[in-house]
Amino acid sequence: MLETRIGKLKLKNPLIMASGTYGYGEEYRRFYDPSIVGAISSKGLTYAGKAGNSGIRIWETPSGILNSIGLENPGIEHFCREEYQEMRSLDTGIIVNLGGNSRDDYLRGAERLNDLDIDLIELNISCPNVKEGGLLFGLKCDSAASITREVVDLSRHPVMVKLSPNGDPVADLAQGVQEAGAAAVSLINTVQGMAVDIAHRKPVFDNVYAGLSGPCIFPLALRMVHQVAKAVDIPVVGLGGIASAEDVLAMLMVGASAVQIGTMNFHDPFLVPKILQDLEAYCQENHLENISEIIACIK
């Protein structure tokens, strides 16, 4: 009833756990069996690992959070040795979120992942290109397409590109990475925001700006998913502030084949089983044989 697909990847339901909000899945065993989810996108990984940003990293905002984690992670090699087998044992789709600060970072990471049995690479192009003055790979259509093409050519896994809402029009970015060989796109990544410590008259974050996520960005994400779904032929995965079954259904109706749930996992660690129950009830009440019948019903 809830089965769906991202290209050749068959999911038991359309719920994917978003990168950076679910670890590698093991942490949620205390709440429910992680195998109930359609797939898990790993914590964002870089080839060499990163210590992350200094100072405050999380700041609560109305209906969301600002984060400045800085892609702290143990690196691809550590993941391959320590986390991969445990993640693989969870009996769900395995997506590895791959980031990098240079072309070589991405390519070395993708090449190492060729040794693993994973279902999809989620290419995080919202990373600063240190060799190009810190400009994010994903802000411009040409740089987004270029790094996508190189990773696709090297990887034996299908590549889903995670799109930023902070650069060129997102539909243009999606078309560019589709032409470069992307098997799917996911969107939106966090929206750039800021917080001020008025007591000390300075920015809250050492990096000044941070990524805004949570229900406050859902209407923006929904609009962009709708635009992208009309612009490309590859599957679209919608994310950004999803907090309920109604949000999931809205994303599917505007063209998403699946969705990712992120920030709201922190707010309610039991959210996923609740949403799955509500989605099944919706299908039954509306006499749907499969939830995919509503995908892109809104043109």
UniProtKB/TrEMBL annotation:
Alphabetized InterPro entries for the sequence: Aldolase_TIM (IPR013785), DHO_dehydrogenase (IPR050074), DHOD_1B (IPR033888), Dihydroorotate_DH_1 (IPR024920), Dihydroorotate_DH_1_2 (IPR012135), Dihydroorotate_DH_cat (IPR005720), Dihydroorotate_DH_CS (IPR001295), Dihydroorotate_DH_I (IPR049622)
Co-factor(s): FMN
Flavoprotein found in the keyword field: yes
GO biological process: 'de novo' pyrimidine nucleobase biosynthetic process; 'de novo' UMP biosynthetic process
SUPFAM superfamilies according to UniProt: FMN-linked oxidoreductases
Residues noted as binding FMN in the record, renumbered to the chain: 19, 43-44, 97, 124, 162, 188, 214, 240-241, 262-263
Active site, per annotation: 127 (nucleophile)
Pfam families reported in the protein's UniProt record: DHO_dh (PF01180)
PROSITE patterns named among the record's database cross-references: DHODEHASE_2
Record domain Dihydroorotate dehydrogenase catalytic: where: 1-281
Top EC class, one word: oxidoreductase
UniProt cofactor note: Binds 1 FMN per subunit.
A molecular function GO annotation: dihydroorotate dehydrogenase activity
Pathway assigned in UniProt: Pyrimidine metabolism; UMP biosynthesis via de novo pathway
EC number(s) reported in the record: 1.3.-.-
GO cellular component, one term: cytoplasm
Cellular compartments annotated: Cytoplasm
NCBIfam families noted in UniProt: PRK07259.1, pyrD_sub1_fam
Family: Belongs to the dihydroorotate dehydrogenase family. Type 1 subfamily.
Function of the molecule: Catalyzes the conversion of dihydroorotate to orotate.
HAMAP family attached to this UniProt entry: DHO_dh_type1 (MF_00224)
Protein's recorded name: Dihydroorotate dehydrogenase
Gene name linked to the record: pyrD
